[in-house]
Amino acid sequence: MTLSSLPDRPMTGGEVQSLNEQDNELSVAPANYVPEQDRVFAVYFIRSTRGHAVVFDEGEEGWRVLEAVDDDVENAFAVLQDAVREWADDAEFDDEYVEGETTVDFDDPDAVVDDLDER
């Protein structure tokens, strides 16, 4: 199941930064960034009690939660990093996602938070 609050393509670095700057209790950071293409294929969403590693799934044409951990898990962030590293080793990215420049526009700044809470 994909996260409906995110676009149906990889994000740009600027879009991830924009998500991080929104006024909510969510920290957002790129987990897999291709600078030559300015494309982010994996993102960390971190809150005080839970973290998510979210990846772009080309087959589903959307973003999905790869791994989620509660803050009480030992080395919780390392668990997320390992999941992304393993996913990236097998991932192949299509050139069609290199073209085009649009922005993520959320009317509701908590859209991503609500979307993640459902997972």
Précis, in short:
The chain is built from 3 helices and 4 strands; from the N terminus they run αββββαα.
Can you describe this structure?
This protein is α+β, with helices and mostly antiparallel strands and 119 residues long. The protein has a domain of 82 residues. It is built from three helices and four strands, in the order αββββαα. A four-stranded antiparallel β-sheet has the order 1-2-3-4, sandwiched between helices. It starts with 12 loop residues before the first helix and ends with a helix.
Task: List its traits.
single chain, 119 residues, alpha+beta, four-stranded antiparallel sheet, 3 helices, 4 strands, 26% helix, globular, DUF7964 domain-containing protein
Topology as a string of helices (H) and strands (E): HEEEEHH
Query: Percentage of helical residues?
Result: 25-40%
**Mind describing the biggest β-sheet?**
4 strands, antiparallel
Number of beta-strand segments: 4
Distance between the termini: 9 Å
Average pLDDT, rounded to a whole number, is 80
What is the 3D form? Answer: globular
Read across the widest sheet, the strand sequence of neighbours is 1-2-3-4
How many alpha or pi helices?
3
Rg calculated over all Cα atoms: 13 Å
Helix-and-strand structural type: alpha+beta
Write the SSE topology:
Layout: H1 13-21, E1 27-34, E2 39-46, E3 50-57, E4 62-70, H2 76-90, H3 111-117
Antiparallel strand pairs: 1-2, 2-3, 3-4
